[in-house]
Amino acid sequence: MKDVFDRRVRVTNLVFGSLVIIVGVIFALVNLGVIEGEVRELIWDYWPVLIIVWGFTELQKIIVNLIEKRKVHLISAITTVVIAIGFGLVLLGNNLNWFAEQISFWSILWPTAFVYIGLQIIFGDLIINKKSSKHFNFSSSSNDYKEKKSSDEGFKTEYKLVGEIDKGREPWVLDDLDLYNVAGETKINLATALINEGEVTVNIRGLAGEIEILVPIDLAVKVRARVLAGEVKLFAESAGGITSQEIYVSDNYEDAIKKVKIDLELKAGEINVRWVK
Fold it and tell me: pTM of the entire structure?
């Protein structure tokens, strides 16, 4: 059963990713005036279908993770799906004149935010399969990530709905860290951190916003930074657009006495990782 769901997710991602590329090319042709007339109008009317499809692919991933007993931040995951599908339907309905009057997405978003906050107050950070968190493992000789299951024991989990998470203004002790900031700015200064010998893992995720990591130039690190829609700046490398990802591994990582493995992921926004002295 799990293999079947995994295959479906891979196929869905391949199809959806290919569709996004095709639509991007079509939009470029539209902007260049190569595509005009009824075809142009059809594209402008139906492009929100992509957002709806993406929402359903995220729903499928939630189902797969639940079946495979992987860690799921259930309320935030479901909220992401609802917002994506709802946003796509509102845009599509406005384009196709489904409604008597044009509907503003924000008029739907802020009531949804209240519902979300209410659920958080009642249930807190509802995590399914908490002891089966997914973290990432990758070798210094390859840019290929492999998922591994690991216990949450020893991880300090922090969760924030909206706002700023800022660590490092004063000296602090870095332990294995798992942060989730739904919408906002997350700043981590490793230059002021007291790091024990061995490998420390830092996982930071969010729905929308900005992640900034300051890394002392003499610290051995493994970093994966991924943004579904936005920009990634990882030391000297950068990427932007749809599904942007950069990976970096220090040359001396395997032999380093102190080392930090960092996994960063945003649905939308900017990730910036830079060296500091």
Answer: 0.52
